[in-house]
Write a structure and sequence with these properties.
heterotrimer, A: D-Maltodextrin-Binding Protein, domain 2, 2 domains, five-stranded mixed β-sheet, four-stranded mixed β-sheet, disordered N terminus, C: 13 helices, globular
């Protein structure tokens, strides 16, 4: 799931300073942790704390049950605290500065790099956790400086949702290419209804939704001012200019887009599987899922990898860290991840498990297929990703409002991405 | 002969105790103001010379980087755009509030049935929480489903409506108009008070001389209203430059940074990017602008008092 | 001061139309709050079938936030008046050296942008553990109340005849007693005005609610609405209902205490 996240800007000097401090802290942390671990071996750990952003009542209960079950196998109870998505990072920073981080911390995967860089997390290799069979994307997102800091039991990505009735009535086939998307959207637009909707707002959600179009066309976040990137942006600009997509996409979140779809104000949308329960509740809505359209027929769409990783922060108590690591390992084993995937309409992170899942839940097959080729956002840029993401959504806004052409907008985006 | 020396120390001590008692009345408030205004100003200046990052939260390290924060933000094109937006937003708001506020104040100048009731009910937009009214305006200005565009379409004034929140210039216009709507009650009330202070007999004398309403305005109302009007304008400028709520709630600074002002930029830098150093630098720029207005206000006030 | 001649009913009609135009958004807010749930994006001009489910959702989800706002607002009123009243009295009636300086300082505080205060308070509160606390918000929100209250109270107290306070002192009362027994009762109107505005400023505060809280444990309703929008977009009637509830204090105080509101608006600007 994608939530709006915050981007800190990185600077060379700061990174060096932070790197030195990190090493110092890790060194003292190891030494300190060992000493206190030995010293507090007398007290056994019976409960650990966990922090996540699953505030939705059902989600919160489901995760609570999963955490409790894993806790039981290790002999601890898990105190789960959930804060709203946008509040998670501020809370983590606040806890980091007051040294009150939880024992088990959930992070949205693109945030892991920055938090790992501060030195607040512990690498998972010291706990002997098995990370074999995990999708390449999630491993790259969770690896900082060569060490693995987190694991995600399930991942997800975005795809094209469409209203079956509207497409059937208009005699339009599900679009597979960009050209088909443009014609289909145009044919499906009528007064009071748009053909297509995306989230193009000025947050990381907008960037996230644009990435499939950027990547599938060969564009890359390392160099944004390329013709491939401009073509991708031009697609969105054309959709809005031709009236197939509302100009309000500039302000919509993925949640807003889904509401538009449920209300029948758009025939197609780009969104993720976490909306499926909402869609199922809507009476009379017959929806379908397809992979996001690609530039040319036969290409595979490259979509961004979503999903939350679980990490073990630095702590004075080595015993608590060990228990937390065991719970983390339990959450990430094949049985648990399959159960979680079925509960939350996500995809298991281990490829073998994912294929079994696709057979068991055919409606998720499109997502399983997309996840296989999905890319981690921080895969290439690491801690510099937030800046590139900011550049991308700034370019989207500029181009869709007509302030700049896609080429100009992306040149500016590259400047933002590479600024100190 | 009595020695003079004894009563003097007693008097001095009594006077000292007297001053102390008097100062104790002010001390709590003075301490509060020092802590909650003085400290932030100083801390902002200090922070603006340091580099804060996410790592600072964990390690506490905020290295001193001199003027680098200032040079970074002042040279970014986002700053010059934010400055322009701030100027346009402020000038547009004050002018709009003043002109409309004056018009309404003049309308209420002479009493009529229900006048007082209407005048006090008119205060409501200024008193409502900006989040509540901003949210309502956002709903009303939606391009596809908002009531404003629906009316424009139904009245065949504009077939496709106005992209109030999705176009760059319209968005700035929208927040300015909303700010004017919020500010009119305040301006009206102050100007109404000023109008009431103008002696009636001046108008009666002018009317005997055969003067029309426009002449009366130009030669009686406006000159006597000038001091109050200038106070309203300067105060308006000071308050508008600080505005954050409306913009955050209605447009969030967008689209495409079209409604980012210095104030909202400072917020974004500090609380969304956690670049507290740069955010502090930006808000110091804002502080300097505010102090500039404050000096103007002092000069104007002194002149008004001497007039 | 009455102006002659009185104008007729035409002015009243124009006045009503003007008021209707200015208050239309308020009407729309109420209208949207009474629309039925599940009608996310369209609203009729008039709530044909008024549905209070929006209010029920609002009270369920934001009831706690309303209480939080109330607690913080009342606390801020108490603190602001407690600090401002003695200071205003001293600045109005005592001839202390440095009065000019203090007054200039208060004027300066009116010019300080809230974001400057929030920037500094965030890290201070983080170190002191005052983030997400009632006390923290009360202290921060009083930055709007204290200067304003001092200005309003001082301008009123300057008008208290010195003979009365001096007569009390001659009778042997200490300064504090004079303040409590003579000055405060006489300043009741100004105190009410100051209290009213401090309450409204704090109730409407958004900036400090946004920056000085990181969780939902202590969340004023202004922040609640802002975040409600993102979380509940298919229940606009609940969002608008919350907005209506948040607007109630202002509306109620305007109707009930109109005199004080008008007085505060004018005296707050004349320094």
């Amino acid at each position: 799931m994608i939530r709006p996240t915050r981007p800190p800007a990185r600077r060379g000097a700061a990174r060096l300073g932070a790197g030195i401090l990190t090493l110092a802290l890790v060194a003292t942390g190891c030494g300190g942790g060992g000493e206190t671990g030995a010293g507090s071996a007398t007290g056994t750990v019976t409960s650990i704390t966990a922090l996540d952003y699953y505030t939705d009542t059902t989600e919160h209960a489901q995760w609570g049950a999963s955490l409790a079950a894993c806790g039981r196998t290790v002999g601890v109870t898990v105190e789960q605290t959930s804060v709203p998505g946008a509040s998670l990072i501020p809370r983590v920073l606040q806890q980091a500065s007051s040294r009150t981080l939880p024992d088990l911390l959930m992070l949205d995967n693109p945030d892991l790099q920055q938090i790992a860089q501060t030195g607040a997390l512990t690498p998972l290799d010291r706990y002997g956790i098995d990370s074999s069979g995990f999708a390449r994307g999630i491993l790259s997102a969770s690896t900082y400086d060569g060490k693995l800091y987190g694991l995600a039991p399930d991942v997800n990505t975005i795809a094209l949702f469409y209203n079956k009735d509207m497409l059937a009535r208009a005699g339009v086939a599900v679009p597979r290419t960009w050209a088909e998307l443009k014609t289909a959207a145009a044919r499906l637009t009528r007064p009071g209804r748009y053909g297509m909707a995306v989230d193009a707002n000025a947050t990381f959600e907008g960037t996230w939704q644009f990435l499939p179009f950027l990547w599938s066309n060969g564009g890359d976040e390392k160099a944004l001012a390329t013709p491939q990137a401009a073509q991708a942006l031009q697609l969105w600009v054309d959709l809005v200019k031709s009236g197939s997509m509302s100009a309000s996409v500039l302000n919509w979140t993925q949640s807003d887009v889904s509401d538009q779809f449920v209300a029948g104000r758009t025939a197609m949308m780009v969104n993720g599987p976490w909306r499926i329960s909402d869609l199922n509740e809507a009476k009379g809505l017959h929806w379908g899922v397809a992979p996001i359209p690609v530039p040319q027929a036969g290409q595979t769409p490259v979509t961004p990898l979503g999903g939350e990783v679980w990490t073990v922060p630095q702590s004075a108590s080595r015993a608590r860290q060990e228990k937390a690591a065991k719970v983390l390992a339990c959450l990430n084993d094949s049985t648990t991840m399959l159960a979680l995937a079925r509960e939350h309409f996500t995809v298991p992170s281990r490829s073998a498990v994912a294929s079994r899942y696709a057979e068991q839940v055919p409606s998720m097959a499109a997502f399983v297929q997309s996840v296989e080729a999905a890319r981690a956002r921080t895969g290439e840029l690491g801690v510099r990703w937030p800046q590139a993401a900011t550049g991308i959504y700034t370019a989207i806004q500029s181009a869709l409002t007509g302030e700049q052409t896609p080429e100009e907008a992306l040149t500016h985006a590259q400047q933002i991405a590479t600024s100190p | 002969m009595r020695s003079r020396s004894r009563p003097v120390p007693d008097l001095a001590r009594a006077r000292f105790r007297e001053s102390l008692a008097q100062w104790l009345f002010i001390a709590p408030a003075a301490l509060y103001l020092l802590l909650f205004f003085g400290y932030p100003i100083v801390k902002n200046v200090v922070m603006s010379f340091q580099q804060y990052t996410i790592t600072t939260f964990y390690t506490g390290a905020a290295p001193f980087v001199g003027l680098r924060n200032y040079s970074t933000i002042l040279s970014s094109d986002l700053f010059s755009r934010a400055l322009l937006t701030t100027v346009l937003f402020t000038v547009g708001s004050i002018v709009g509030q003043f002109v409309l506020g004056l018009a309404i104040a003049l309308f209420f100048q002479r009493s009529f049935p229900l006048g007082r009731v209407l005048r006090s009910l008119l205060l409501l937009p200024w008193l409502l929480p900006l989040v509540a009214s901003g949210t309502t305006w956002r709903w009303m200005l939606d391009g596809d489903t908002g009531v404003v565009n629906a009316v424009l379409r139904d009245l065949h004034l504009l077939p496709s409506g106005v992209p109030w929140l999705t176009g760059t210039s319209p968005a700035l216009l929208s927040v300015t108009l909303i700010n004017i709507w919020v500010g009119i009650p305040f301006t009206t009330t102050i100007l109404y008070g000023g109008l009431q202070d103008i002696p009636t007999h001046l108008y009666e004398a002018a009317k005997l001389d055969g003067a029309g309403p426009v002449t009366m305005f130009r030669h009686i109302t406006w000159p006597l209203l000038r001091p109050v009007a200038t106070v309203v304008l300067v105060l308006g400028a000071v308050y508008t430059v600080k505005v954050l709520d409306i913009i955050l709630v209605v447009t969030g600074g967008g689209p495409a940074d079209a409604t980012e002002t210095i104030a909202t930029q400072s917020y974004t830098l500090s609380f969304q990017q956690f670049e507290f150093g740069r955010g502090a630098a930006m808000s110091n720029v804002l502080l300097v602008i505010s102090i500039g207005f404050a000096l103007v206000y002092l000069r104007v006030n002194r002149r008004a008092q001497n007039a | 001061m009455k102006r002659a001649p009185r104008r007729g009913r035409l002015s009243t009609v124009v006045g009503i139309i003007l008021l209707a135009l200015m208050l239309f958004p308020v009407y729309w807010m109420v209208n949207a709050s009474l629309q039925p749930t599940g009608n996310p994006l369209q609203g009729g001009w008039f709530p044909r079938h008024p549905d209070v489910s929006g209010y029920l959702s609002a009270l369920r989800d934001q009831g706690g936030n309303l209480v939080t706002s109330l607690v913080v607002a009342l606390g801020s009123v108490a603190l602001s008046l407690g600090l401002a009243a003695p200071a205003a009295y001293a600045l109005a009636q005592f001839r202390i050296r440095g009065t000019g300086l203090v007054l200039f300082g208060i004027l300066l505080t009116q010019m300080v942008p809230g974001i400057v205060v929030a920037n500094a308070l965030y890290s201070a509160y983080n170190d002191l553990g005052l983030l997400n606390s009632y006390l923290g918000l009360i202290l921060a929100d009083s930055t709007a109340g204290v200067p304003f209250a001092i200005i309003v109270l001082r301008s009123f107290m300057q008008g208290i005849p010195r003979e009365i306070t001096e007569a009390a002192r001659v009778d042997g009362a200490g300064r504090l007693r004079v303040f409590r027994a003579v000055v405060l009762p006489m300043s009741a109107n100004a105190l009410i005005t100051a209290a009213l505005f401090t309450f409204l400023f704090t109730w409407s505060d958004f900036l400090f609610a946004l920056t000085l809280t990181t969780t939902e444990t202590v969340r004023p309703v202004t922040l609640g609405i802002y975040q409600y929008i993102g979380a509940q977009t298919h229940q606009w009637n609940a969002v608008m209902a919350t907005a209506v509830l948040a607007s109630l204090p202002a509306a109620v105080l305007l109707v009930v205490a109109q005199r004080y509101v008008a007085a505060g608006t004018t005296s707050g600007s004349v320094q």
